[in-house]
Amino acid sequence: MLIFSTLKIIAILAFLVFALLGYLFYLAARHGWMRNGYFRIPSVILIVLGLFVAFQAIGNGITFAVIGLHIEAHPVAALSINGLSEIVVMLLGAGVIAYGSGQDLRAVFRLEGIRETKVFAYVLAIPIILAAQFAGGALSAIWERLLKFFPDLYQLLNQYETASDKTMQGLVTATGPIDLALILLFVAIVPALAEETLFRGFAQTNIERSGKWHARPITALLVASFLFALVHASVFKLPGLFLLGLTIGWMTYRTNNLFVGGIGHAINNGFIVAALYLSPSISSNANSGIIGTEDLSATQALAMLVIILPIFAVLLFLFMRASASVTARGNAEREVHAMIWKTVQPEGFAPHHFDDTDIL
User: How much is the pTM?
Assistant: First the structure.
């Protein structure tokens, strides 16, 4: 028997969410919404969550108005509306906010490293993202087993996750070649463009370049990756989604090229869709939410990690070598330094050493 009713749990979560949002508004108002011409962490979180809520409201509103409640009967239409909403709200919305704030769109959306990115980096993005997917699935499986030590909480979460997975699996399981092509478009390609623009572009860049004395790539990578995992609304898959976000964000940072991570993101989602099309019964937990927990025991998950992590490490090392010559990666640090010297130049002034502890 649950200690708290579902309604009480929802009320508590709602209170915590509004309290957190209020605190973020307080921080933004007290310390400033922007620094160096870029949004600071509280501002970024509020903007990203605001755009995501708007996307959900608009996408679901139009879907229910056009299709009705039984979206499983028209999966392609539902995914099409969802995809178009992602483009309008997440991609264009982030672009409008950045442009309206006077930011350089080429810098914000990480297009500065395109010319320097080697073909080998694009190629490596594919096995890297697949390795991250398997490692993330194993981590999520272990995490899910740990949650079972809290049976009441696990029971509530499992009901939600199971219903969500079944709905999503029904939407992304193609019944023919035409369906497969359309689902790949709206589940793999469109989300890769929209989500990468918002998370690895707008969020990661603004946090990185709004440092006080130096660029802060580590903080930017962690916060943007957590936001990416959070908005997928899956407690069971949270560790795997976070690892996937870290992987994509790191590749994007190394190349300062949004398309490298975008290709990895599209391949990851496309792999899931293709797997469901070729074998719909491959996993009752598979979905388009990027990382599935799979039906793994803790022992199987640990064994998978032992196998996949060395491979993952080698692939990341090769990517580091392939992206070592990208000079555009240092543009964020150069821009922060230029802004500092432009606004504050007292005699004897010297920037502090970078320790990435300037959290806000």
Answer: 0.86
